[in-house]
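Why do we bother with a discrete structure alphabet at all? Because it lets us treat a fold like text: something you can write down, compare, and reason about line by line. To make this less abstract, here is a complete entry for 3-deoxy-D-manno-octulosonic acid transferase. Read it the way you would read a sentence in a foreign language you are learning: slowly, and without expecting to understand everything at once.
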Amino acid sequence: MTRDTSADRPALFHIYRAATALLAPFAFRKVAGKLAEHGVSPERQRERLGYASLPRPASTTADGTHKPLVWFHGASVGESLAALSLIDKLLPRLPQAEFLLTSGTASSADMMAKRLPDRCRHQFAPLDASGPVRRFLSHWKPDAALFVESELWPVTLDAAKREGCKLALVNARLSAKSIERWKSKPAVAAFVMQQFDVLLSQNPEMGESLIELGASAERVHPSGNLKAGSAPLPVDRAALEAVRTALGRRRVWIASSTHRGEEQAVIAAHKALLETDPSLCLLLAPRHPERADEVADLIRKAGLTFAQRSKGEALTSDIQIYLADTLGEVGTWYALSPIVFLGGSLAPIGGHNPFEVAQAGSAVLTGPGYSNFAETFPPLIAAGGAVEVQDGQSLAAAVQTWLSDCSALDQARDAARSVVLSQAAALDGVVDLLIETLNLQGPAPSRPRR
């Protein structure tokens, strides 16, 4: 039943809702253009306007049992993977439930197409404007909605709540800048936070920030990082063996998800390492493959040889850096080497997902800027599963230590895996809390007749 709470909405919310309704056609033109650049069909682009491209699953079984539809929303790949970790745990617990996962990027849609389990489908999220949101909710009619990390869309949350949808914020993580922006609009911040029936923060500090923004303290629970429970990244065995064959007896280390301003340090580190092991190979995978030409220029200026994967260039014995400028293959590269430097940490980005590295059996190197995983890296570093470096020189030293001491490397790999397993095990309690708070209890599993 629709619940009208218009009197509870702050004036700034009404202004925002009116503005987004007016700007929706222009916003759609922009986001549709980005999707089109990645080959997304016009029909699927219109999902951003709330027009579904898939039918809603039946709301009841043949015997009349209710089948809840649980909606997860994450911005892009990382958030969608966090959502999948929860969906994978909910599937066996809720045998009658169906799942909908929405996101906003073509890359997340591509990944979900490969990794979605049974009873789950993907759509692009509606723009946060009255028309798209109304069409979306009218079609899908979700029983519960779980928003991942920092997805705080006022119009969507308000409309879903008015339709009787139970709401959760999971894996909550807001940047310091975002928190300050919300604090500057306290009435709207409190209104948004109060829409949620439960809020799961990545760490206690974030939980306190949510309460300061207006969330009810009894609804806020620290949960750890849901990405700890994500399934391991897929590995292309044929591609993996092809690269291994090309390398032969050469050793290799990985620099993954690097950003502008980091490749210089990585290349300098590799150049130093080549003085000790001239046959050593670096596989360099920039976070954004469209920067490949820029990265290639940096390698040339450093006087090193390289092959570019997107161009099909061969990884021959004289190649010092293999530039892996492709999408969707990072799981394959993590399986290639037990030493992985994670980018986004020497530059002020916030770091990237160490769970995927540890799940692949590798040890982790990171810069100091891992604020997006502030609850994960400290215990990982304390256990010895990760090492923090400051620049190219310390990165080279850390890689050299592990290359020259197999026992130390094996201990680091085991420690990384152990930390991730312990954090993943803690997610079972999170699932129990969500099922209870969002009223998702399914019928007891049927027992075989005697």
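What the structure line is telling us, in plain words: DSSP finds 18 helices and 14 strands in the chain. Confidence is low (pLDDT under 50) at residues 1-6, 443-450.
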